[in-house]
């Protein structure tokens, strides 16, 4: 008798099939039992630690005066959070949707693992009447301002500027919160936002306030299936309102080939990476300064330090270090001639970019 055994690791998403295993009458029950134990151990291992950087999520109940009912939020924190500091906090919509919740937490986990975003509290909002809450907006915003954030301040140490993220109607609401309470929500991630409700009122509000709001705004949309195709013209209007505004650090990504429900798979990670780009460059700058203490003449560390300074708008300093990297490349006798030529050309282009940006 011939069988195929399949071991499935749920949260890790890995399925391994071992075929051509002979199980015949000569096999003892002990062997079969051992195989089952191995399968159980494999599954147990996969379920045990889905997120390497995050604590187990806690669901907290709030007796809401705003909604006149009990409301719940999901709080997940980095395992490296230091409670004596003001820690980064990201609030996201649709935490009751297991797909959205899982994608968001996994994206944040992966970026924290490599110091691409700060260690953070991740706060997921569970909706009771999703469409009504997100589209009517003001009651949900009041709930965040008067009940959720005071609770976070009371129980945890969080920063006084937060990131808010959402998909679809959640992206509509996140954009609204970013505009209305910009001092607090100074960063927004809007994934395939539906900007058509209420006669496109969020677009009107964005147009009215675009010169006075500040912060980071990441916007993305797909182009596959009607759900996202029908939203694109509204998203492009938002893009046209915000682009080239010096007071808003803005990025738009056209996720061609992605449908409405697929855009969060890429969008949340890309959005988080963009929002905390400056924070990451600060980390890179410190890292390269440390590396240069050990290898002061290595042009590679010098170039990356200059890249960090350039991205942090410290253009004059960046130019100095690009020139130093160029000098060190010229003196590096271990570099093949063709590679040296390519690096020299790249560094000269970066020096030119510094002159253009400064002017």
UniProtKB/TrEMBL annotation:
Cited SUPFAM superfamilies: alpha/beta-Hydrolases (SSF53474)
Keyword Transmembrane: no
One example GO MF annotation: hydrolase activity
A family per Pfam: Esterase
Highest taxon above the source species: Bacteria
Cited InterPro entries: AB_hydrolase_fold, Esterase-like, Mycobacterial_A85_antigen
Key words, A-Z: Hydrolase
Gene3D superfamilies reported in the protein's UniProt record: alpha/beta hydrolase
Keyword field contains Hydrolase: yes
Protein name (record): Alpha/beta hydrolase-fold protein
């Amino acid at each position: 008798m011939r069988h195929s055994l399949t071991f499935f690791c749920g949260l890790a998403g890995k399925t391994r099939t071992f075929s051509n295993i002979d199980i015949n009458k000569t096999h003892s029950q002990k062997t079969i039992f051992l195989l089952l134990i191995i399968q159980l151990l494999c599954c147990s291992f996969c379920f045990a630690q889905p997120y390497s950087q995050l604590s187990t999520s806690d669901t907290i109940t709030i007796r809401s005066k705003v909604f006149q009912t009990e409301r719940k939020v999901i709080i997940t924190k980095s395992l490296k959070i230091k409670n004596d500091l003001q820690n980064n906090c990201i609030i996201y919509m649709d935490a009751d949707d297991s797909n959205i919740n899982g994608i968001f937490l996994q994206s944040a986990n992966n970026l924290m693992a490599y110091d691409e975003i700060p260690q953070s509290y991740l706060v997921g909002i569970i909706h009771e009447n999703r469409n009504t809450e997100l589209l009517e907006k003001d009651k949900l915003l009041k709930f965040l301002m008067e009940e959720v954030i005071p609770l976070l301040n009371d129980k945890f140490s969080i920063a006084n500027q937060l990131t808010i993220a959402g998909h679809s109607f959640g992206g509509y609401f996140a954009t609204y919160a970013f505009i209305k309470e910009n001092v607090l929500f100074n960063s927004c991630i809007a994934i395939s936002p539906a900007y058509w409700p209420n006669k496109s009122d969020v677009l009107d509000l964005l147009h009215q306030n675009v010169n006075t709001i500040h912060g980071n705004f990441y916007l993305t949309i797909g182009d596959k299936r009607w759900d996202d195709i029908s939203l694109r013209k509204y998203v492009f209007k938002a893009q046209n309102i915000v682009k080239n505004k010096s007071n808003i650090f803005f990025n738009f990504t056209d996720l061609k080939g992605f449908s409405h429900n697929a855009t969060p798979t890429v969008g949340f990670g890309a959005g988080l990476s963009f929002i905390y780009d400056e924070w990451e460059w600060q980390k890179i700058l410190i890292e390269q300064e440390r590396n240069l203490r050990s290898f002061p003449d290595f042009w590679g560390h010098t170039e990356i330090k200059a890249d960090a300074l350039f991205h942090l708008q410290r253009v004059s300093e960046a130019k100095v270090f690009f020139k130093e990297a160029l000098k060190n490349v010229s003196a590096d006798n271990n570099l093949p001639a063709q590679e040296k030529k390519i690096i020299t050309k790249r560094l000269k282009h970066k020096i030119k970019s510094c002159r253009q940006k400064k002017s």
